[in-house]
């Protein structure tokens, strides 16, 4: 498993009533919600990482450090870009940016950790007793 520094991936969505701050409970204005921007950033990062992983492996988010710089109205397209900046063993650091059709709306870093899917799932569900 060789993870390529500089690998990039883009994910896109359109702002709808379902992904606004009002809809997800993160505010009272009908604009693209910060948690939805973070979710799009994580999706881009996870997908970027997954292309390098063997069967049975996945990655989990461990840190999100982003600034939401500008509001995006319903109807506008949003894209999240994730670029692998650093690999330290099983930890991958991404430089992430989000844009709407008018420009940059968010930026920061995101970290993911490579795990064995089944082992990770079993450990999580062991909490149920």
Automatic annotation (TrEMBL):
Residues that hold CoA according to the record: 61
Annotated catalytic residues: 34, 42, 68
SUPFAM superfamilies: Thioesterase/thiol ester dehydrase-isomerase
Annotated binding of substrate, by residue: 61, 112
Name of a matching Pfam family: FlK
PANTHER family membership: BLR0278 PROTEIN, THIOESTERASE DOMAIN-CONTAINING PROTEIN
Name listed for the protein in its UniProt record: Thioesterase family protein
Organism: Zongyangia hominis
């Amino acid at each position: 498993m060789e993870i390529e520094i500089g690998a990039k991936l883009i994910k896109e969505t359109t702002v709808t009533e379902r992904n606004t701050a009002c809809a997800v409970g993160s505010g009272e204005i009908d604009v693209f919600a910060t948690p939805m921007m973070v979710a799009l950033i994580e999706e881009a990062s996870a997908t970027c990482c997954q292309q390098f992983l063997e069967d049975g492996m996945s990655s989990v988010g461990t840190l999100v450090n982003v600034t939401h710089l500008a509001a995006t109205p319903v109807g506008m397209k949003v894209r999240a870009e994730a670029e692998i900046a650093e690999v330290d063993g099983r930890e991958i650091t991404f430089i992430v940016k989000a844009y709407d059709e008018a420009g940059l709306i968010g930026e920061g870093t995101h970290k993911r950790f490579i795990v064995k899917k089944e082992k990770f799932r079993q450990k999580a569900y062991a909490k149920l007793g």
